[in-house]
Amino acid sequence: MKKPAEEKILEDHISAKSLKKSSQRKVVLRMFLQHGKHLTADELYRIVQKKFPRIGYATIYRTLRLFCECGLSRELKLIDGITRFEPQHGYQHHDHLVCTCCGRLVEVVDPEIERLQEKLVREHGFYPESHRMELYGICRKCRK
Ligand SMILES: [Zn+2]
Ligand SMILES: [Zn+2]
């Protein structure tokens, strides 16, 4: 069976950092990709625990850091101060609408806004690299 690209990226990163290979990291990666829409380390820990009770929180946390280092994941720091992680590899850029009532995250992308952001950056003599945009509000469900 062919290895998924994500596994390869992780393996390369692990050998580049001369870390020991571990099967636990692979498990964490698989579970993260399956469930990883804006998960906190704690949420992922609880998901993994159900199937792999021997994997500790510290391993989950460290592994998520590794994912971020090699571009498999990105960190999402919202105004609630909680860090969430989301898969990055193979995903298109998107921004988020955040419900301040229930915490729901909606992924959005608007070509017009993207373009304007780039224009703004360039007008200030910057070369655009990346951005994050979060818009806070109350979602449809919570407004009812
Ligand atoms: Zn809501
Ligand atoms: Zn997202």
Automatic annotation (TrEMBL):
Leader sequence residues: none
Q: Which UniProt keywords apply?
A: DNA-binding, Iron, Metal-binding, Repressor, Transcription, Transcription regulation, Zinc
Q: How is the cofactor bound?
A: Binds 1 zinc ion per subunit.
Return the PANTHER family for the record: FERRIC UPTAKE REGULATION PROTEIN, ZINC UPTAKE REGULATION PROTEIN
Q: What family is this?
A: Belongs to the Fur family.
Record-listed Fe cation binding positions: H93, D95, E114, H131
Tell me what this protein is called.
Transcriptional repressor
* GO biological process, alphabetically ordered: negative regulation of DNA-templated transcription; regulation of secondary metabolite biosynthetic process
Cofactor dependency: Zn(2+); Mn(2+); Fe(2+)
Question: Could you say which residues bind Zn(2+) here?
Answer: C99, C102, C139, C142
Q: Which GO terms describe its molecular function?
A: DNA-binding transcription factor activity; transcription cis-regulatory region binding; zinc ion binding
